[in-house]
Amino acid sequence: MPNVILFDNEVRDQLLPFTWLKPMGELRVGILTIREKWERMLGYPVSFLTQEYLSGKYATTYSEVNILINGSVMPTPELVGLIRQMTMNEALLLGDELIAAMLSGEQVASMVKDEDFGELRVFPVEEKILLKLSKAYDIFRLNDRALELDFALLTHNRVSAPLSATNRVVGPADRVFLEEGARVECSVLNTERGPVYIGKDSLVMEGCLIRGGFAMGEHSVLKMGAKIYGATTLGPYCKVGGEVNNVVFQGYSNKGHEGYLGNSVIGEWCNIGADTNASNLKNTYDEVRVWNYAEQRFSPSGLQFCGLLMGDHSKCGINTMFNTGTVVGVSANIFGAGFPRQFIPSFSWGGAQGISTFQVEKAMDAINRVMERRNLALSVQERLILLHVFEESAQYRPWDKKKSAS
Questions:
Q1: Helix/strand/coil (H/E/C) assignment for every residue in the chain
Q2: Do 358 and 347 form a contact (C-beta atoms < 8 A)?
Q3: pLDDT the model gives residue 403
Q4: What is the predicted pLDDT for the residue at 46?
Q5: Sheet harboring 271-272: ordered strands across?
Q6: CB count, 10 Å around CB of 199?
Q7: Cβ atoms < 10 Å from Cβ of 104
Q8: How far apart are CA 361 and CA 144, in angstroms?
Q9: CA nearest 52: which of 12, 97, 14?
Q10: What average pLDDT does this structure show over 77-101?
Q11: What is the mean pLDDT of residues 258-267?
Q12: Which of 15, 42, 266, 271 has its CA 20 to 30 A from that of 250?
């Protein structure tokens, strides 16, 4: 049986802060993560070829026959068809970027060691058949199409659990799908512009207004009276309320109260304080500029609507106000009056009134307390990853440099 390896390349830096703690293939777009999509579409085991500091948690496994796939690429029927036709030593390229290749175990071993693995027969692919992440905000920008593909994949030849008669469906009723144990009561579900997928053992409380496409993962909760506009995704174990428009919650994150969030991506283990609002449109209606880690500057996004991009384990206090296109790193704790800066580095503590470093041991203690509420614990591998990110992200905390100089 072939083995699938999702590999990271230079696009990984364009997807920060969401790839600080995980490979590109573990990002969620639509209903499933990129890894989960490939596992279901190809039916083969999947591993990762990623940054060295992540390899302890995300190891590379390979066999005699291996299909290498760019971790920023999601499966489409056309691309899957091309990959299934590949033979050994063949590759698919988009311009100069490798999309997929079929290699022997020896070739993969050479690749892991950053050695030459020989010449390949190259075939170009057209961009129009790809669904591919290039920037962090593509996670919400492409969520509509990804959600449609995942809905078709997950519901094919399956029957939905029954939807309670207390609800009202506007649009095709067959575009609503409930997994086993899902509960929805006294809510309005509109499927005219996209499907509605309610995951296993998840709960939609009374009075919710949902416009598809919308998906919520297992054990997630939509709080009473929530107003949801598509395309929005709640990963597993999320709690969300208030007004949400085209947002992807990666998983294990909460926005349990009132406040507006639009055109945004929220990482794992985040918490959005009550009455927090994030602007997604400038008063001038100009294009939004977003912090780019690869370019080390704010760069044009090509988007008129772009809200908050918040990395894993970050939190904000009640009444936090985020400017348009704000980027928050990993394990930042934001609070206080006023608008914080539009780029908040990893392990930041504070806000507009002043900011300092969230020391790594205290940050890890907080992370562990949050995870324990889900009966999980921060592993040794995850601690080492966080230590690495703390050190690597120090370059973005200018106050640390000033403190060292004095």
A1: CCEEEEECCCHHHHCCCCCCCCCHHHCECCCCEHHHHHHHHHCCCEEEECCHHHCCCCCCCCCCEEEEEECCEECCHHHHHHHHCCCCCEEEEECCEEEEEEEEHHHHHHHHCCCCCCCCEEEECCHHHCEECCCCCHHHHCHHHHHHHHHHHHHCCCCCCCCCCCCEEECCHHHEEECCCCEECCCEEECCCCCEEECCCCEECCCCEEECCEEECCCCEECCCCEEECCEEECCCCEECCEEEEEEEEECCEECCCCEEEEEEEEECCEECCCCEECCECCCCCCCEEEECCCCEEEECCCCECCEEECCCCEECCCCEECCCEEECCCCEECCCCCCCCEECCCEEEECCEEEECCHHHHHHHHHHHHHCCCCCCCHHHHHHHHHHHHHHHHHCHHHHHHHHC
A2: yes
A3: 58
A4: 95
A5: 183-184, 203-204, 221-222, 239-240, 254-255, 271-272, 315-316, 333-334, 348-351, 354-357
A6: 22
A7: 17
A8: 39
A9: 12
A10: 95
A11: 98
A12: 42
Banded model confidence at residue 406, pLDDT cuts 50, 70, 90? very low
Nearest CA among 326, 292, 321 for reference residue 306: 326
pLDDT given for residue 2 in this prediction: 87
Predicted confidence (pLDDT) per residue in 115-140, tens digit: 777 789 999 999 999 999 999 999 99
List pLDDT tens digits, range 309-344: 999 999 999 999 999 999 999 999 999 989 999 999
Which structure tokens are listed for 20?
């600080």
Q: What is the pLDDT of residues 350-389, one digit of tens each?
A: 999 999 999 999 999 999 999 999 999 999 999 999 999 9
C-alpha dihedral, 95 to 100 to 106 to 108, nearest 10°: 90
d(C-alpha 326, C-alpha 314), whole Å: 13
> Are the C-beta atoms of residues 285 and 303 closer than 8 Å to each other?
no
Choose among 105, 91, 84: nearest CA to 41: 84
